[in-house]
């Protein structure tokens, strides 16, 4: 058995996990819909109470004029950028080098919309106002991802966000928020969602990250923007006859977990501190600003994998099922605090860190 | 209250319906997943047993090398045509003037892929081999929709299909099947799905038409074609982390209704006969070749609407909730036989036609 398989298999075999909200299994859907009256009618191609009520509710939460439910954020964000590019007649947008659009979408933005992407700043830090000012070409839209997932969920200061927003408005650059994890950053900023969203022209939020739904996204913004977005949703084949399995679960888990984000954040800070006390281990960021961070091991990856597999078997707590090798002496994984960690007793968690040290 | 609203409202208020498989409500999903073990794991971005087992099962049913599950047929078919256009280096495809791609997708094929569409034959009849031979320009792909939904679900003869297939192969034209209602036509052709699919290079089937699932589609064909399709599925934002709500219901309702298609077809033939005996009424086609047909009224539309609303209230059987006005003296609706009609007692159905006459 390879070490990578062993790590994954021992992880899957553990009863408890450090990350996430529990297994992604069918029970997640069963729980979400069991309390709903079977007579309630499906949404039909974007119409009907199930979809419009949820869209109105989230638009209100985000403080934006309207909202449209999409099957995925990939679809929603490409469409948002296309609309801004069309409106400003500039087929160029700018975002972080590790933006979801750049590394996880098989170049959909370029292949479907022929939009050129300018990368802002450096891949190992968040985008700054200086990066935007330094753009060599005019762009229609800047996309900011809060938190910046691929670097452990880092954030700019709220003041920097305000300044970026002012600069973009002055320069007629649309500012779009990749808020896949928007609810997860509110405790750090000590803001409501609408205070963050007020800085942006359009906003995407996801319902299966910290909230733990099944899939699905909301794109929010001005109504005329959303009317265009609905046409593109139809073109993409995202205007399904029924999106209710995702909508109902998004609503259910939003209600279930929206008030737990501060708890997740505090636990992430506490957990990162414990990891940083281990020899040859550090977290990125050192002090988390959301419910997530990266754990980095400064040892050969095979050694770490073998050790973690032992730890899984010894503690019955899953630390991670994979490791990304950064160089011969550095590997890391992403840790995201959700409901799962709260099922582990304090002394068991303490024991885990004793075993890890 | 307007007549159109009155028709819709009286239709919705009826206990029984002539069309479909029952209300599109949450109970459809609840029924599909209630028997499944909650521990069963979600598919993850196109991987996992739930999705691969279903894809393999349907590929086997269709007799094709492989299959990929998509959230929608719109997405699946645009992608299929794009791949054929790329392979043959001809950004032109041909299909019926009332193809789904032409009239229901907000020009997605043209807007996303810049593919030119050549319309085959006439809008009020099915595509013939002669239409394909008469094409003035070379195309990469011909798409055939079986049955042709917008003209009441008409079909060419199986012999004509065989000849079209041979011609396309001879001329290096890919032949794609819009088989949204493929299972519904097998009783008329007296063929298995794989015998029809063997004539095509790629096939799309839907799981929420006659089968009555929630949403979702399969694109089937050669494995190298499907590998490209998966990349496009990712680009479109159709590669959701979890598609299982649609997959599980597709599988459940496929098993539940696949063997009822002959029953639906026979009932459609019987029902069309009864409509054709009414004064000023005819069906298209006169004798159905699937579970669907159009009912045409040769009277002013407002008169028909008012009459049908009365009929709804008098019989408690829903005939239709809408009428499409074709000209001042002609209107029609689509009738699709599913499980719903079998809940109506024979004498009640007889009574309906007495009231209608």
From TrEMBL, chains A, B:
<dbReference type="Pfam" id="PF01212">
    <property type="entry name" value="Beta_elim_lyase"/>
</dbReference>
<dbReference type="GO" id="GO:0006567">
    <property type="term" value="P:L-threonine catabolic process"/>
</dbReference>
<keyword id="KW-0663">Pyridoxal phosphate</keyword>
<dbReference type="GO" id="GO:0006545">
    <property type="term" value="P:glycine biosynthetic process"/>
</dbReference>
<feature type="domain" description="Aromatic amino acid beta-eliminating lyase/threonine aldolase">
    <location>
        <begin position="43"/>
        <end position="292"/>
    </location>
</feature>
<dbReference type="InterPro" id="IPR015424">
    <property type="entry name" value="PyrdxlP-dep_Trfase"/>
</dbReference>
<dbReference type="InterPro" id="IPR015422">
    <property type="entry name" value="PyrdxlP-dep_Trfase_small"/>
</dbReference>
<keyword id="KW-0456">Lyase</keyword>
<dbReference type="InterPro" id="IPR015421">
    <property type="entry name" value="PyrdxlP-dep_Trfase_major"/>
</dbReference>
<dbReference type="GO" id="GO:0008732">
    <property type="term" value="F:L-allo-threonine aldolase activity"/>
</dbReference>
<dbReference type="GO" id="GO:0005829">
    <property type="term" value="C:cytosol"/>
</dbReference>
<protein>
    <submittedName>
        <fullName>L-allo-threonine aldolase</fullName>
        <ecNumber>4.1.2.49</ecNumber>
    </submittedName>
</protein>
<comment type="similarity">
    <text>Belongs to the threonine aldolase family.</text>
</comment>
<dbReference type="InterPro" id="IPR001597">
    <property type="entry name" value="ArAA_b-elim_lyase/Thr_aldolase"/>
</dbReference>
